[in-house]
Amino acid sequence: MVAVVRGLCCVLITMGGVEMSQAQDVERLTSSVGPVMALSDDEVLELIPTRAGLRFTGCPNCTGGTQENQLWWTIEEPHSVYCQHCDLRYPNDLYPDDQSLHVVNSRGETHEYPYWDDDDGYHHFFQAKGWYVQREYFQDVARWLAELYVATGEEKYARRSALILRRFAEVYPGYLVHFDYPFRQKILWSGEEDFPYPVPAFRAAKWSWWAYMDISEDLLKTYEVIRDSGALSADDQQLIETNLFHAMVGFINNYEPALTNMDPTLLRSLIWAGRVLHEPEYIHDAVRRIGLLTRQQFFADGAWREGAVSYHNQTTRGLGILVDLLDGYSDLPGYTTADGARFDVLDVGEQLPILGRAHEVPNLLRYPNGRVVAFHDTWAREGSEPTQRSQSAILPELGHAWLGSGEGDGQVQTHLHFSGGYGHQHRDVLGMTLFAGGQERIGDMGYTHTRYRAWTTTTLSHNTVTVDGLDQQPGSLENPSDGALTLFVPGKDDLLAVVEADGRRAYPGLVDDYRR
Ligand SMILES: [Zn+2]
Ligand SMILES: [Zn+2]
C-alpha cells in the first residue's frame, strides 16, 4: 500500500491511498514533527500519556465555543491546557484540580484523574483533557513520521515513529474504560468489567471518546509503513499487533453492530486492521456489517433512515470509502471462513444498488440557491450547486414531498415534511418550508451545537401546527410518528400541483385529524 514514484520535477508519495506532492509536504511534515524530533527518546516516552484522558472538559471562565471543546494542549507547554477563547491556563489557583478520582486498572495500577468541581458538583478534568489531546497529537506525529520516512527514506523518522508506536502498545492495555460525553458527569471503569457497560452502546470507550473511533486507523497506517523498516524487532511487532491492534478490535467486538451513521467510521478502521494485520476475518466481518447497514437502515427511496441530509451524506460517503477500500480485495490462497466463504476480487459496490439511489438524495433536497433543504439535524450551511429549474418530487418512504416550479430566478419550492423519528429527528411532522424570490422565506433551523439546540427540535419552532401547546411525540421504531402521503399531484408547467399528508401519529390519542 506504499509506493514512492520518483520523477525529475516532483515526487508523488502514496500512503494509505493518499497522494502527496513531495517537496511541499516534506517541508510541512518536517516542520510539524520538529518539536518531537528535538526531544530525546526518554523525553518523548515521558510525554506519551499513560492515561487515555477525556475530551469534554469546558472552560469555566468564559462562554466561548461549544460542547466543552474550549480547552487545548500544545507540546510547547505540555503540563497545562489553555482556553482557545479566553487564553486562561488550567489548572490554576482559581480553578485548582484539587479533587481526584482513583480507579485501579486491569493491571492493578491506580490511575488518578484530578478534577475541579463547580457549584453543581460537576467535575472538570483539566489535566485529563491535556492527556486526551496529547494522545491524539502523538498518534498524528507517529503517522507524519512514517510519511516522512516514506518520502525521504531516512531511518531516523522510522525509529522515532516506532518509539511512539511501541509506547502506545505498552500503555494501551492499562487505559481505563471511560464514558466521555459533553455536559455529562464522566465515568471511569477499570476495563475488567463485563459488557455491556451501564451507558448506551459504544459510549464506553477505551482509546477515543466514542468507541466507534477506538481502532486507531492512523496507527495502523503507521505500522504498515514502518513494520519492515528495521526499526521494529520481531518482538516489537508481536507486542504492537497483540497488545494494541488486536486488543483494540477485541474491545470493539464486545459490542453488537449498532448500524448507525458511525458504522462506516468503525468499519473503515476494521478493514484497515484486516489489511495491515493480514486478518481476513476482520474483512469478512466488515463486509457482513456493511450488508446489514445497507439492507436495514436505508429507505427504499434511497434516504438514510435518520432523514437528516447531513447524516445521510456522512453515512453514504463513509460507505463509498469502504467500497473503494475493499475494491479488488482477495483472500489469501486457500483461505475460507468457517462456513466456507472466501473473497476473490471483491466488488462490494455491485452488491449494494441502494447506494446509487442514495447518492441522488442530496441532489434532490436542494433549494434553488444550492443550499440543503434542512430538516432534522441537518447543518443548514451545507449545500452545493444552485439548481437550474425546480419541479415537484417525493421521497415517499422517508416522508418528504415538495412542489416546485420555475427556472432560474423564478424558481419556487414548497416542502412538506412528514417523516418519522429514527435518530437526529426534530418534532416536525407536517412542517413546511418555502423558497421563493431567490431566498428561503420559511425555513427550518436544522442542526446546532449551541444552547438553542433544545429549541430547534421542538414542534413550536417549526412551521407546523402545535396542538395544546405540546410537542409531537418524538417517534421511534416502536412508536412511529411517520406521516402518510394522501395526495400528490406534481403538476406540470402552470397546472395545479397538490400535496397532502396525514400526520396524526405525531399526536397519538390527541387528534382525530391532523393533515396538511
Ligand atoms: Zn475560556
Ligand atoms: Zn427542524
From TrEMBL:
GO cellular component assignments: periplasmic space
UniProt main location, coarse: periplasm
Keywords: Lyase, Periplasm, Signal
Domain Heparinase II/III-like C-terminal: 395-472
Location(s) in or outside the cell: Periplasm
GO molecular-function terms, A-Z: lyase activity
Membrane spanning stretches: none
Name the record gives this protein: Heparinase II/III-like C-terminal domain-containing protein
Lineage of source species: unclassified sequences, metagenomes, ecological metagenomes
